Amino acid sequence: LNWLERRIAFSKKGAFILKNVSGHPISWMIALSLFALNPFHLPKLLETIPSKFEKTATLNPDWPLAGYLSLPKNIDLAAKDLKSIFNAYLQPEDRIFDFSNHPALYFFLLDRLSATRFFHVSMAMHLKTQELLIDELKRDRPKLISFFSPDFTSWDGVPNMVRHYDVSQYILDHYTPWITVRDYQILKRRDLMLPPIDPNQLHLEAGTFKIGEDLPRTAEPCNWGFAPAFWTTHPHKTSSLPAQKLHFKTHLDLTRKGNEPKYITEIELPVDYAGTHFLDIHFNKLSENVFIIKDSDIQKHEILFQSLPAKNTVYRIQVGSCMQWQNYQRNKIRRLFLEYSGEQNIASIGLRK
């Protein structure tokens, strides 16, 4: 239509109409033609025009702090369940610590205060800032900590257990899984005695929660990537005592198919290895590889790391920061399996506190 109306301007009559009658004559002709065909429809159409430009919004009745925001259904349901749990087991002044990257949920929507100045744990990546955060957790001693959340615990592919290794280790040393509701896992302080959870009293929907679950359904493996290949100075507070040597044996996995042979090193763990935080693996010769530590074929129970070619090197993995390692301890796992491709020359394996 714009093109046709521009063409009209080249004639004298067209220029006169555009200047003195209307800048859009063809549009008016079409509108009048439609009105002539159905004169009763136009008034009704004109009545609806204001609503096309009018924006409407309603206050969220369930979440006054959300204002006019409409929450996605999964977050709305999870927030209601968490609110019910917090109201039942916490005092209004009790603070919580969010290790799951959901500050807007806990500190805004649920209106809880953060137990530390680090309301988003990504603010504590450096070793020194992790120490500051741990000091504040020791001082405030929150009753509950949010440890896992669906889809967002590793926002760039690095799990929080790895990125904030010392914070995670402190949490897992002093807190234990309490309840997981809609894949949001809440830990409670180990020395805290709380009444048993009553799902009916809390109005929790069947099948949406688990009490004392070690690893939520959406938990990712504790993947260290290539960090152990470059991590030579940590742990800074490791005991000067030598690592506790572990018995191990390696065999070729004949059940796996593929171009490159798969090997499994079975590692025997001591009866009591609670409080151990580091696994040292000494290689006489090492190639580029992916190593998987696990107790079974359940993927979420895995601790992974990758290697680079080297000789006579020690890879130290801070397994104590992984919920998987705590899971091994709680379930009294005595044998772990280290899987990798291609033969590697392992000299020794040891545990450190």
Could you describe the 3D structure shown?
28% of the residues are buried. Helices cover 31% and strands 24% of the residues. The chain is α+β, with helices and mostly antiparallel strands and 353 residues long. β11 and β12 form a beta hairpin. The model has no long low-confidence stretch (mean pLDDT 86). The strands form three sheets. The protein has a six-stranded mixed β-sheet. The chain has a five-stranded mixed β-sheet with strand order 1-2-4-3-5. It is built from twelve helices and 15 strands.
Q: What is the radius of gyration computed over CA atoms, rounded to a whole number of angstroms?
A: 31 Å
* H/E series: HHHHHEHHEHHEEHEEHEEEEEEEHEE
> Strand order of the main beta sheet, please?
6-12-11-14-9-8
How much helicity do the residues have? 25-40%
Kindly name the structural category. Answer: alpha+beta
Key terms for this structure?
353 residues; six-stranded mixed sheet; 31% helix; single chain
What would you say about this model in short?
31% of the residues lie in helices and 24% in strands. The chain is of the alpha+beta class.
List the helices and strands and how they pair.
Elements (H helix, E strand, L loop, with lengths): L1 H7 L3 H9 L4 H13 L3 H13 L19 H17 L7 E2 L4 H7 L17 H14 L3 E5 L11 H4 L1 H10 E7 L2 E6 L9 H4 L6 E3 L10 E2 L3 H4 L13 E2 L2 E6 L8 E7 L9 E9 L2 E6 L8 E5 L2 E8 L5 H8 L4 E7 L3 E8 L1
Parallel strand pairs: 1-2, 6-12
Antiparallel strand pairs: 2-4, 3-4, 3-5, 7-15, 8-9, 9-14, 10-13, 10-15, 11-12, 11-14
